[in-house]
Amino acid sequence: MQKQGFYNDVIDDEIEDVNLREQLDKYLIHWRWFLVSVVIGLFLAFIYLRYTTPSYEATTSILVKDEKKGGMLSELSAFADLGLGGSMINNVDNEVEILKSRTLVENTIKKLNLDVSLYVEGKVVDRDVYVDTPISAHFTNKTILFDKTEVVLNCKFLNSTTFSLENEEEETEKGNFILSTKNEFKFGEKIPTAVGVLVVQKTAFYAKNHTGRFESIHIVINPLDELTESFKKKLKVEPISKTSSVVNVSISDPVAKKAEDFLDNMIQIYNENATEDKNYISENTSKFIASRLALIAQELDGVEQDVETFKKRNKLTDIESEAKLFIEGSTEYDKKGVETEIQLNVVSSLLDFMKKAPIQIYCLLT
Questions:
Q1: Distances in Å between the alpha carbon of 252 and those of 120, 246, 255?
Q2: 219 pairs with which residues across the strands?
Q3: At 58, is the secondary structure helix, strand, or coil?
């Protein structure tokens, strides 16, 4: 029986090997398609990694002073009992909303001049040259159209001192974007446009690379509303936990340096605004307290004047002093009364003695 079972196991193993080999043979005859699929997959992966714009995330943490966890706000909240400065009390949820607010994001964009971007044209995608840009582009004397305009200008380097500037769409809704009649300009020259005065200047990176790497750069003006909404979507503000006052702030961007600069400047503006708010609240609270003290002092002065008038009308002096004098006078009166009574007793005794004195004298004579 044991030998029979051993033979059965061997036969089963051989049958399984045969079935596996048959299955492999069915697929191996199509090895060419497998090879082509692998090559295509690797090629697509290379294309994706080569031309897909990467995204970098910058993260920072800030401590929000909460009245429930101490800090300046808990001290200022003492005024809430007096009905003063109730709005000073903040919490983490409120600060998270402030950090995600449109106003804060918009002010950060304006401070960093992010509404004017510089791109180098690539074979597939354009590259943002935020860090290693050879030029800088700034607008002065901006008009109300600046924040609503979307324009792409092609800045082509002619030599070390001059460049040409052309609008890709020569005609706009308001006419020509570049108001100057020429299309060649010098670095640092003021160029009038439909939205303000454009000044293009060379940076330190220009001297290192000159025109060997960059032949032209696209100056792109982005509408402020659209750009602000884009940054808001990329911005993440989350508290570490429900019991903590620490908030994580992060943002992703194809340019790592831009993401870092955005967070640094946003937190700086946030702190400046918070300081201004606290100073404003403290200043107005101080003014309110001073006005109340002045009003109370005025009311007390009025009461004192009324008391003084009442005393003069009723020929009264200080009531406390008068009461003291009255008590002292009453004591002195009682003392004088006792002394007078004693003197009267003495006089009465002398009279009685004098009445009896002649009889006693007469008795002595006889």
A1: 21, 20, 8
A2: 118, 153
A3: strand
SS3 63: strand
One DSSP character per residue, 115-169 reads TEEEEE--SSS-EE-SSS-SEEEEEES--TTGGG--EEEEEEE-SSSEEEEEESS
pLDDT digits (tens, 9 = 90+) for 325-356: 667 767 776 777 767 777 776 667 666 666 66
Pairing of strands 190-192, 127-128: unpaired
- Give Cβ neighbours of residue 93 (< 8 Å, ≥ 6 apart): none
**Alpha-carbon distances, residue 352 vs 121, 348, 358 (angstroms):** 142, 6, 12
Torsion, Cα 133 134 140 144, to 10 degrees, reads -40
Please, what is the angle between helix 224-234 and helix 102-112, to 10°? Answer: 110
pTM above 0.70, yes or no: no
Q: Which residue has the tokens 């050879």?
A: 134
Question: Both tokens of residue 213?
Answer: 């790497």
3 state DSSP class of 202: strand
Query: Which pLDDT tens digit goes with each residue over 216-274?
Result: 889 999 999 999 999 999 999 998 887 778 899 999 998 899 999 999 999 999 999 88
